[in-house]
Amino acid sequence: MTKTEKTQVIEQLVEKLNANNKIYLADCSSLTVEKVNAFRKQCFEKHISVTVIKNTLLKKAIEKANDSKLAELIPALKGETALIFTDISNAPAKIIKDFRKNDKKPALKAAYVEEMIFIGDEQLDALVGLKSKNELIGEVIGLLQSPIQRVLGALENKGGNEDVAA
């Protein structure tokens, strides 16, 4: 790869890092080509981008990115790194956990989700437990509907009792 090509790759990575606030780093080393392709396919089906990238290029891109907090990911850049971008906070974590039922990899190296840094594979369960935006909206709507339903139920019961008394 020429210096110009490397510079272009770094600039593209900087753009992606600046445009995303849900970034995962995973270790897919020791997986067979078949298993890596199966992992990529699962990610693709959930609209998750997976790219294996050189650590040196990713490190330079992180250093140039707008969010200085991303620098906390740099220590995780060892060995083979799969760079994962997503729109749903917990989707990659769920795929990794599900995929590992038959294997020890891919392993979570680090993640940057909504300005929070998660380092190490032991953080996978915490990431799986994160609620997506749609899940949170659903919960809020449910909580808002609950008191209204109770009031309506009480009014209906009260109206029904008056009919019996008359």
Describe the structure.
- It is a single chain.
- This protein is of the alpha+beta class and 166 residues long.
- It has two domains: 3-130, Ribosomal protein L10, N-terminal RNA-binding domain (Alpha-Beta Plaits); 131-166.
- Helix content is 52%, strand content 16%.
- Helix 1 (3-19) crosses helix 3.
- The radius of gyration is 23 Å and the shape is elongated.
Defining key terms:
6 helices, Alpha-Beta Plaits, alpha+beta, 5 strands, elongated, 166 residues
Give the helices and strands, then pairings.
Blueprint: H1 3-19, E1 22-27, H2 33-45, E2 49-53, H3 55-64, E3 81-85, H4 91-99, E4 107-113, E5 116-119, H5 124-128, H6 133-165
Antiparallel strand pairs: 1-3, 1-4, 2-3, 4-5
Q: Mean pLDDT, as a whole number? A: 86
SSE pattern, N- to C-terminal: HEHEHEHEEHH
Class computed from helices, strands and strand pairing: alpha+beta
End-to-end gap: 89 Å
Quick structural gist:
This protein is of the alpha+beta class and 166 residues long. It contains six helices and five strands, in the order H-E-H-E-H-E-H-E-E-H-H.
